[in-house]
Amino acid sequence: ALHTGTRALSPLSPLQVVAAWASLPFPALQGCSLPDALCAYEQDPPWKLLSPCRERKVSSCFAQSVVLRGVCKERHLSWPGAQPPSPLHACESSEQMLQQYLHAVFPGALSTAHVLEQPCHTLPPYPQFFSPLLTTRGFLLDKPPRYRSAGVESIPVLAALQSSPVLHTLLYGLYKDLRGLNTRRCASFFSAGVEHDDFQEALEELRTLSQCYKTGFEADESEDEADSD
Fold first, then answer.
1. CA–CA separation, 139 vs 152, rounded Å?
2. Distance separating alpha carbons of residues 139 and 186, to the nearest angstrom
3. pLDDT tens-place string over residues 68-95
4. 12 has pLDDT over 60
5. Cα separation of 118 and 68, whole Å?
6. Are 79 and 33 in contact (CB under 8 A)?
7. CA dihedral sign, ordered 205, 206, 207, 212
8. Confidence of residue 6 (pLDDT cuts 50, 70, 90)
9. Which of 169, 165, 210, 201 is nearest to 13 (CA)?
10. Taking phi first (over 0 means left), then psi (-120 to 50 degrees means alpha), and beta for anything else, what does residue 168 get?
11. What is the dihedral sign for C-alpha 167, 170, 173, 175?
């Protein structure tokens, strides 16, 4: 499901490059409704960057495809004569809740949301490296149970593919590493059919691609210093 909508993730380039994020498991309290679980992280999603990039302090992206699975849907509730606790609680469907959440955390970004009821199964041979604070279904407890007869059998997961400024750091870092290679020591590489001019052209295309993901938050000093070497 993560691949749904990826064609819109790189509007600035004919090539599509995305960064992967995941929360494994998604930290939701046992018995917590979906809007309550999302409201607990209204400033920043509790996921970690899986791609080999340095995480940015500024939370932003151009476009993203996000999947949440395994979190129970909220039962239909009403608040007669009162406002819902949050805009998320007023949404009619789980997809609308996640979409509303993404718009609030990433304003202006193109976001697609997918919510699946089925969790990720973690039965053997899946490694049991989970915290004792998790139930067998992967939800958080206030305190460790006295006894748990079985391991964690399934977990809720929040995952995303993002077209974001963090890709500028990844792609430009790759460009600098390749540019620093001494091609004279790669005789066997070029003898295999790779032309030196083609290599240099691909290198410049990589640099150009990295600029597609650059925003005003990136510092140019390190790049300017590297280019002047």
1. 9
2. 52
3. 999 866 554 555 556 777 888 888 889 9
4. no
5. 10
6. no
7. positive
8. very low
9. 210
10. alpha
11. negative
